[in-house]
Amino acid sequence: MTSPTPDALLGPADIRELAAALGVRPTKQRGQNFVIDANTVRRIVRTAQVHPEDVVVEVGPGLGSLTLALLEVADRVTAVEIDDVLASALPATITARMPQRADRFALVHSDAMQVTELPGPAPTALVANLPYNVAVPVLLHMLGTFPTIERSLVMVQSEVADRLAAAPGSKVYGVPSVKANWYAEVKRAGAIGRNVFWPAPNVDSGLVSLVRRAEPVKTTASRREVFAVVDAAFAQRRKTLRAALAGWAGSAAAAEAALVAAGVSPQARGEALTVEEFARIAENKQHEPEHEQHQEKDSE
Hints:
The chain has 13 helices and nine strands. The protein has helices spanning 12-22, 38-47, 65-73, 84-97, 135-145, 158-165, 175-183, 223-235, 241-244, 246-249, 252-262, 275-283, 292-298; strands at residues 34-35, 55-59, 76-81, 105-109, 125-129, 151-157, 184-192, 197-198, 205-212. It has a seven-stranded mixed beta sheet, sandwiched between helices. The radius of gyration is 21 Å and the shape is elongated. It catalyses: adenosine(1518)/adenosine(1519) in 16S rRNA + 4 S-adenosyl-L-methionine = N(6)-dimethyladenosine(1518)/N(6)-dimethyladenosine(1519) in 16S rRNA + 4 S-adenosyl-L-homocysteine + 4 H(+).
């Protein structure tokens, strides 16, 4: 691999110059905060443990700060960008600053939530600076759609990072924690200061590492069935599971039966349960005979 030129990465002046040339003003609506510090993007790539065989998918590349740092190390990088102006400009930035790696870069101009396939080899890693307002759904969509992604490192708002990495029993443990844990071992992987962004956000950011489970959660229930229990349990998180799952099960008595069969106390609350326990509850839902056929059809 050809070593990159020392000034290949974007600095603060480069970012502002590019933005001015494109008439780009970062928008709050899309949660755009561009990383302007080369040391930070290199640190993200190191923390993500990107290696030369990796095919990395990046969501929301913006002006290309992290994209260039990823291209220094990975075999290939595919960037998914929704913004028309940013998407049209990125290939030219890559060609101008890292011409020797431009053929290893691909752009998908799309909303990440709509992406179901990517060009080239299957992705092995996901590395992204995710806007906080869509971070969790985008992350879960990518993990669910691309099972070849073994490692992910996402930069998100600090509170979102805490929620994703929370363990059962924590006050911030909830739907994002359980669903992320369905796919991966999740942990906080560092903090990012506000001054490395332009414009500087008024919230702190954190890195979250997700390493896909070597063994999927052992269950006969489908992901959709398990996630339905999770959603119901946390929709009314102050209630006991017997009450919170009444709508899901058809009645409080049916919810209690499923909980007892799963070995979970009907008086417990969702924040105390592991993903495996949610899966057991899903397995023990009693279906009406005439609904069984539909359930089989719906299972994934």
